[in-house]
What we know:
Blueprint: E1 7-8, E2 15-17, E3 27-32, E4 35-36, H1 44-57, H2 62-65, H3 86-97, H4 102-111, H5 124-137
Parallel strand pairs: 2-3
Antiparallel strand pairs: 1-2, 3-4
Amino acid sequence: MSLAVLAVCRICRRRIVPEGEPLYPGVVRHGGRGLCGLHARLSDPEVERIELARLYRREPSRWMKRAACAPAHVDPEIFHPFDHDVETHERARRVCKRCPVRSECLEDALETKDAFGIRGGMTAPQRARLAKQRKGDTP
Length: 139
């Protein structure tokens, strides 16, 4: 009997196994996109909203309270645009550019493998490339 665990669901954090593998206590079927069978039925925007809500529910670190994006007058939606609107990305980057905790934000995004939005002045693909470069630089 194989006890291969593919991953954990990005939403419910239950262990998931690939199709064809036997189920055992505490695991569920893989539904695709890093989600269990139940949550795979959600659309990508719904999954993203749930993940963002989880991210913002966590206890803010001290540096988060000093962030340029923390005040209520800054629209948080500019950091998580659903389209590739260049103007929106530039507005977010301008806020990040003047942020006193930009490096802490970027490091947190890299550490938590945040795959959405603009953090530390970088988009998710830019952060992924940076993480890959750093991984290649380490012995």
